[in-house]
Amino acid sequence: MAHAFLVEPYPIVAAFADGSAAGTEPQAINDDMIGVVHRGVTAPLGWVEVDLGDVRSVDFASFLSTEGQAASQRVRGASSRAGLTVSPGFDSGLVNFSAGRSGAFGAVHSWWRADDTQPYRWWRFDFSGLSQPFAAGRLVIGRRLAFKRNFNFGMAPGIRDLGRASITTFGTLDRRIGARLRTLEIAWSNISQMDVQESLMPVLERLGQTGSVLVVTDPLEDQNLARRMFWGFLDEDIEIPQRHYDRWEWRTRLLSMI
Asked: Which domain of life is it from (predicted)?
């Protein structure tokens, strides 16, 4: 089992695509609400370009809740938009698109990670073999954060049902259907002081309880990878107690929208 990691997404300053269907726009891939989507207009080929606003170290990208799933993708990074197609500084070549089969609630997510971080402002994603025009609810692009020691045994994925069912005073069933969201309880109990101070705390200071984060509990690229991806918000107070000398614990709960 490979180590879990987190990705805090970089803000997307601008986004462009092969086109955008009525009622959608490319910039929607920067919206945390998965139901707000970008939907392209071409198939079997399509593309998306994003501007991160500054040079950023990137080693991971995932389009969440996609439609028109591609057979493959090509990821390129450059210091200018023109450079993405003329002279990219990074070019993945054709690589796999999907994070295994569909995940929770039938959603399909894309998956790309690099062995080393790539420092570029502009990024382009080309899709081939699309079954229909490409669509996605969110692009998570950023740098993975993992710790030397993996999380504890006892990780607990679950479901929070926002609906309810009850029996009225007349003995009839009152059922109100609501959204069902996944939850994840997970704890890392062997984090070093250096990781806490230099990596984890800066991320948590930016996230608080309103910033969004992707957690991948096991990045093994198999058919169930999408089910091990959680995207959402920290659902409790944030604290990192010191358990022993140079051994700190981060125990958290995530409310996921995928």
From this structure: Bacteria
Q: Which CATH architecture has domain 5-146?
A: Sandwich (2.60)
154 Cβ contact partners less than 8 Å away, ≥ 6 residues apart: 187
pLDDT tier at 183 (50, 70, 90 boundaries)? Answer: very high
Please answer whether residues 93 and 76 qualify as being in contact, where contact means their C-beta atoms are separated by less than 8 angstroms: no
CA distances to 31, 45, 185, 204, 222 from 21, rounded to whole Å, are 17, 15, 38, 36, 32
Does residue 227 sit in helix, strand or coil? Answer: helix
Report the C-alpha gap between 95 and 97 in whole angstroms. 6
Residue spans per domain, the chain? 5-146, 156-256
47-72: per-residue pLDDT in tens?
999 999 999 999 999 999 999 889 99
Please, what is the end-to-end C-alpha distance for the chain in angstroms? 22
What pTM did the predictor assign?
0.91
Q: Do 47 and 17 form a contact (C-beta atoms < 8 A)?
A: yes
